[in-house]
Amino acid sequence: MFLTRMKKILAIDGGGIRGIIPGQVLLALEQKLQAKSGNPAARLADFFDFFAGTSTGGILASLYLCPAEETPRQARFSAQQAVQLYVEHGSRIFSVSFLKRLQSGNGVLDEKYDADALEETLRTYFGELRLSQLLKPCLIPAYDIEKRRAHYFAQHNFALKGPSHDYLVREVCRATSAAPTYFETALVKALDGQAYPLIDGGVFANNPALSAYAEVRNAQGNPTAKDMFLVSLGTGSQTEPYPYAAAQDWGSAGWVRPLIDIMMDGASETTDYHLSRVFSAGGEAEQYVRLQPASLGGANLALDDASPANLNALVRVGQQTAQACEAQLDRIATVLLEDGPDPVLFAPVLS
Known about the structure:
By secondary structure, the chain is α/β, with parallel strands linked by helices. It has helices at 20-37, 56-65, 79-93, 98-104, 116-126, 157-161, 169-176, 202-205, 209-217, 244-247, 252-281, 308-324, 326-339; strands at residues 7-12, 50-53, 138-144, 149-154, 186-189, 195-200, 228-233, 288-291. The model is unreliable at 97-105 (pLDDT under 50).
């Protein structure tokens, strides 16, 4: 299909509990890879060369890249096990007592949820695993509120720059998913002891695909769009309008939640537009694939609705999206199998 090896990149959007949707789509892709390769133990990490994920997408990417304890070069979790994190633990992570709801003003006066359940779940899945131990290079964004700049967690930076750029994976996931008004700011320490106050990377890169493209462009050999195959997965977008008559007189309290939704959706759509233009400019449009549910059906769009009914609805949306995108998933699986690995390597940084 292609004359040269390509860097295969997987990027996953943020979206809270809606991470179930790309999780189900990637489950379908992994099953296709297993069937086509004849290897029932095949994992996504065996085929993609670079991963990126924001917020819930960062958690998924980390799960796919988590090494098995007994066979460290193989992935510990299947795509099915990864998505089960949300189904099994989502209701605990997004559980709030009446007193907490009252004290926080439903997320207006204080964070809406205690982070204990989220942190406990991340500890259960990742333990003391370090970012540098993940199976493939990856990029996970967060935002430093004191330095007022983007903070990118990069698996390969440990090898390049040392302990100052290595972290516990559970803390990386806690930082990238610290959505304002939902969870308190994460205070994350690098292995050298330096602390960073970080919030959800979705405030500037809810769709991390463009960040992933830029990072891989700086790998050895300076690959361009013609040297990449980029698969980007969304978590669904808000389509409910904010009527002018209601919004025209909103103050800061009224705009908090709508603004978060608008920023995240707008950032994702802008990234998709830019990448579509980048890949089509050189005649490589087919090497960029964006998979997004056409509709959320009866599922709630809220980032935090982890009620049993909505969890089931999100699973159905993910399955329906996989079915609707079956031809694209077949093509992706074929490319991943036929093109083979093309490791993303980075030259050491000279001090």
